Amino acid sequence: MTTLAVASFPSGRVRTLRTLQPLTWLERAWHDIRRAPAASFAHGAVLALFGWVVVAVAWQRFWLLAGALSGFLLVAPILATGLYAISRDLERGEPAGWSSVWRVWSSLDRRLVGFGLLLALAGTGWVLTSAALITLFAPTPVVTPADFLRLIVSESSGWLFEAWLMLGGLLAAPVFASSVVAIPLLIDRRIGLLEAVLTSWRTVLENPVPMGVWAAVVLGFTLLGLCSLLLGLVFVIPMLGHATWYAYRDCLPAGER
Questions:
Q1: Which residue blocks in 59-159 are alpha helix, DSSP H?
Q2: Shortest CA distance to 200 belongs to which of 221, 222, 174, 167?
Q3: Looking at 35-49, 56-70, 215-229, which range is the least confident one?
Q4: Comparing 24-33, 124-133, 153-162, 176-185, which segment has the lowest mean pLDDT?
Q5: Helices and strands (H, E) in the chain, number of each type
Q6: Would you tell me how many other CB atoms lie within 10 Å of the CB of residue 114?
Q7: Whole-angstrom distance, CA of residue 76 vs CA of residue 222
Q8: DSSP secondary structure string, 200-227?
Q9: What is the H or E stretch that residue 248 is in?
Q10: Which of 36-50, 146-160, 179-193, 223-237 has the lowest mean pLDDT?
Q11: Could you confirm whether the keyword Disulfide bond appears in this record (predicted)?
Q12: How many whole angstroms separate alpha carbon 222 and alpha carbon 240?
């Protein structure tokens, strides 16, 4: 059975990353997908299926659907926990796949549960904020995706779409900084939740350009997944999940890797 390393992240130290180093994480992620394809693509398929359920429920309530789909970015890091576990076991040369996923989820680690609840709370807050903004300030009710495009996105004289994007960014940025390496760190080390989050923030603050590149990659891939009738998520989710593990590994000080 896989055991967690006892040592914590020493004083929260992180390594300096190269500007385009995030691209190497994608390459390494693809190698992990090839070695554990069933469990990897299953994560993407489950999240795509969940997205279709959300769309089916809220299709005629696009004031709600817009926030629900964009809020996916906020909760995705915890949903990809099984992918981090697979990459961890592959890196250690241990059996990896469904067994990795089962071990990490069946552990009911209170740190992961707590972090998941916090991300869910952030996602719910964004859904409610998005719905309130669109409902209160749209010139006429936004019911369908066409209404959203016509009344919100394409309205040249309005400010609502810009405000919607700005508020979403203000919420997404701290969530990204808090979670970018925190969850892989939690499953790999015996470390407190607060220390993991602070280490994640330190990673972003000490590597703003590489982390900015990574944020753009995550956003771009996710938009591709969402705009492909969610089918692209089957591929996007495992790519980003496995790559996040390597983002964490590359941030470790040389003596701790």
A1: 62-70, 72-79, 81-91, 98-106, 110-137, 145-147
A2: 174
A3: 56-70
A4: 153-162
A5: 13, 0
A6: 12
A7: 10
A8: HHHHHHHSHHHHHHHHHHHHHHHHHHHH
A9: helix 233-251
A10: 146-160
A11: no
A12: 9
Predicted confidence at residue 6, as pLDDT, reads: 37
* Cβ atoms of 65 and 220 closer than 8 Å: no
Backbone angles phi, psi at 189, to 5 degrees: -135, 155
Residue 257: predicted pLDDT: 58
In this structure, the dihedral spanned by the alpha carbons of residues 194, 198, 199 and 203, taken in order and rounded to 10 degrees, is 150
Q: State how far the Cα of 10 lies from the Cα of 154, in Å rounded to an integer.
A: 50
Instruction: List residues bridging with 5 in a β-sheet.
Output: 189
Exposure pattern of 24-51 as b/e (b: 16+ CB <10 Å)? Answer: ebbebbeebbeebeebbebbbbebbeeb
- Enter the pTM of the model: 0.87
d(CA 168, CA 131): 12
pLDDT score recorded for residue 2: 40
Q: How many residues does the chain have?
A: 257
Say how far apart CA 20 and CA 194 lie, in whole Å. 28
Which pLDDT score is estimated for 132? 87
Q: Which residues contact 246 (CB under 8 A, 6 or more apart)?
A: 24, 25, 28, 29, 87
C-beta neighbour count of 16 within 10 angstroms: 9
Q: Is the pLDDT of residue 255 over 60?
A: no
Chain-centre distance for alpha carbon 90: 21
